[in-house]
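tool_call predict_complex ligand=GFB
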Amino acid sequence: MTYDLRGKRVWVAGHGGMVGGAVVKRLTCEQCDVVTVGRDVVDLRRQSDVEAFVADASPHVIVIAAAKVGGILANETQPAEFLYDNLMIEANIIAAAHENETEKLLFLGSSCIYPKLAPQPIPEEALLAGPLEPTNEWYAVAKIAGVKLAQAYRRQYGRDYVSAMPTNLYGPGDNFDLASSHVLPALIRKAHEAKLRGDKTISVWGTGSPRREFLHADDCADALVFLLKEYSGENHINVGSGEDITILELTRLVCDIVGFDGEILLDPTKPDGTPRKLMNSNKLLDLGWRPRIPLPTGIQQTYDWYVRHAPREAFADIG
Ligand code: GFB
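tool_result ok
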């Protein structure tokens, strides 16, 4: 083990999000003290807020799971916030960590940092080897800057700051808003509502042919805690499940689980994004970590959560 979490104060930035929440839950097994703060108290985009909070809380460890995130349409339509918010959040936290001599920091990026046409499965070395996917280049540029900032503090000041690049994540607590969500929660909601309404069809964006790799947020959280303890190095580490699936296959799987047996209609007016995004996670696997939650199990669990938590007004017109 390179780092012992026992007795450490760990600030999980972004604890209210799907991944941050999963990290907080996972850390309960580590005999450490988890610190969180709400966005009503600390706006992570404001340097003065972050500086004051980190100086006061004095965490030994920081996990940066806070970010402005969203699906392909949100990325395409809000380039300013995806770039600005993410740059500010990561720069403020990493600089404050350095200022306060935080011992260990883990920055979360995303598989969209890689070139649109990266070799598959994508190795860590593909970073900056080609042009980005235009629908999410704003988010990708911000996340690449975060990886580089963590590296820069390590190189110049010897800080133990590392970065992990998770693949497309899903799970309970995800965003199910159709305009801003990622594909998996969108499909769960569409299939569920279509079933309740007795619709004959559901609409799926794009051609259905792009391939994506999905990892449950609990598996991701487990990998992140594993990396905190077992990894210290300048290079970022991919975190994936090792399997990808086409969007059409994913839609069929979701429809099966939800129990919607209507027709799937493709909407080619919506963007496909990157044709394929499967990561090579061998570096993480070689360290000894393994994912545990198969995709069908994870989708079923997420669907069950959605049915329990979906706001009633979402179904008001469905009965
Ligand atoms: O999950 P998603 O929005 O993001 O879309 P990306 C994945 C694929 O699913 C795309 C298709 O080809 C979409 O066109 N898709 C089909 C849908 N139906 C739907 C739908 O109803 N909603 C959505 N959202 N997609 C994101 C990046 O890219 O990946 C983010 O934009 C982030 O920055 C994230 O990196 C991990 O996988 O294309």
